[in-house]
Amino acid sequence: MTGQTFEPQTQHMRKLVPFRVIVCAVAKDPEAMDKVIAHYNPYIIHLSNRPTRDEDGYFVRLPNAEIEARLISRLIHAVVQFKIKTRSS
Amino acid sequence: MVPESCQLEVCLAFDTYCKRTLRNEAINAHKSINRRKQIILNFSDLPVEEEYLFVNDGTLEPEADHLISGKLISNQLLTASINKLPDQLRRIIHLYYFDEFNDRTISEMIQVPRSTVQYWRVSALSKLRHDIEKNADDWADI
């Protein structure tokens, strides 16, 4: 592992939640939790899309508020249960 | 202090963990909504016109008549008979038949035993029946 460099690290890091935020969020810090939720918000909205009938009777995909709320609460529940494992430990 | 390479590992693991949790929960949520949709049907989703969704048989209109055992009883006659009852009995009739409480609830409301409520109700009904039978002939004979 010595010669290996993490060239794409910065690229990865941009798409990921920062390590410090993860540590704080797992320790139930509300601000960090907000950051995590904001980070996954686009994905949550994508997942909560449901075909809905609009005013003219056409089917359109709209985010369902109920699923959204359920996903957010599940995410909070999951983050708290996350165990940080490193190779050393 | 955790080394940087390990930090990246943790970040990646966390990302995967969150995404997997969200995806599984989304599948569950969609499934449960679909299941509920099979049981519950909204009025807005019904393919029929609104006017077919209810029936008005006209019994609540003031001029409505009821044909019961060969006698024509109008709502006016019924109202007049109920108004002739003593206060206590009239109150029981109102609570039981118009506000749709049961005997036990009424007994708690007016602080009397349940059997008394039942007795008052039955006696009020028999008084009403006598009164209506006496007066219904005057209105119309079919």
UniProtKB/TrEMBL annotation, chain A:
InterPro entries membership: HTH_dom_conjug_TS-like (IPR024760)
Residues of the Helix-turn-helix conjugative transposon-like domain: 19-83
A Pfam family this chain is assigned to: HTH_16
UniProt protein name: Helix-turn-helix conjugative transposon-like domain-containing protein
Species of provenance: Candidatus Brevifilum fermentans
From TrEMBL, chain B:
Molecular functions per Gene Ontology: DNA-binding transcription factor activity
InterPro entries, sorted: RNA_pol_sigma-70_dom (IPR014284), RNA_pol_sigma70_r4 (IPR007630), RNA_pol_sigma_r3/r4-like (IPR013324), WH-like_DNA-bd_sf (IPR036388)
Source taxon at top rank: Bacteria
GO BP terms in the entry: DNA-templated transcription initiation
SUPFAM superfamilies per record: Sigma3 and sigma4 domains of RNA polymerase sigma factors (SSF88659)
Domain RNA polymerase sigma-70 region per the UniProt entry, residue ranges: 82-130
Matching NCBIfam families: sigma70-ECF (TIGR02937)
Protein name per UniProt: Putative Sigma-70, region 4
Species this chain originates from: Candidatus Brevifilum fermentans
